[in-house]
Recover the amino acids of this structure.
């Protein structure tokens, strides 16, 4: 978790004790902004009174739309880490009513001016303000991309049980379902005894020397024998 350091008397926010000041924090809309605020006296980390409490305050920037003044006081979690040198954890929800009054910039960002306000039994203090930049989610309108190709067939385009592989024994149904033209070779059979052996359209046979093609219509049976074939 990212830490920010706050001088307990001046409220100056820095990236470390004696480090550079914090000018802005960037977060993503529809997420939770989490920061650990560590207090110090300019030389070392200090712990606030056990009764200390804190809130996160934000208001619109002049460049953004919405009402002026305080936009929202978040009753965020103010949780001591309990660690040596640790501070207090803020969890700021960046969605819903917290941001509804803010008009986005042309690039979709929300610009706020924010600060941490904390109190102890005998005093209250507010940190320096910093820019809170809330970036838009990946899909501004919460849309998912449409499938431009539709690579998979819809259920209505699939073969029914009567026409799937289990139904291939019905040659006529198989041809119709699979859009196979009449006469296509789809059924390898035993070598016919002669040119008038019983067969069906689509039947064929092959030996090491001949290819046999059924040329009848299912009622009148005829075969064509072609020499020079290799069995496969």
């Amino acid at each position: 978790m990212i830490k920010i350091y706050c001088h307990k008397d001046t409220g100056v926010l820095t990236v470390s004790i004696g480090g550079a000041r914090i000018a802005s924090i960037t977060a993503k809309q529809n997420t939770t902004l989490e920061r650990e605020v560590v207090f110090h006296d300019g030389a070392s980390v200090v712990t606030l009174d056990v009764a200390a409490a804190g809130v996160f305050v934000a208001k619109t920037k002049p460049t953004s739309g919405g009402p002026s003044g305080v936009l929202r006081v978040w009753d965020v979690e103010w949780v001591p880490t309990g660690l040596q040198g640790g501070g207090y954890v803020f969890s700021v929800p960046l969605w819903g009513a917290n941001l509804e009054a803010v008009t986005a910039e042309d690039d979709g960002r929300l610009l706020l001016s924010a600060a941490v306000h904390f109190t102890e039994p005998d005093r209250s203090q507010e940190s320096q303000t910093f820019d809170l930049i809330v970036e838009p989610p990946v899909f501004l309108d919460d849309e998912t991309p449409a499938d431009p190709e539709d690579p998979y067939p819809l259920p209505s385009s699939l073969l029914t049980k009567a026409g799937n592989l289990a139904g291939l024994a019905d040659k006529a149904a198989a041809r119709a379902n699979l859009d196979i033209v009449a006469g296509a070779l789809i059924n390898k059979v035993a070598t016919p005894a002669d040119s008038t052996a019983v067969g069906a359209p689509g039947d064929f046979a092959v030996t090491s020397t001949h290819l046999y093609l059924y040329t009848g219509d299912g009622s009148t049976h005829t075969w064509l024998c072609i020499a020079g074939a290799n069995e496969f």
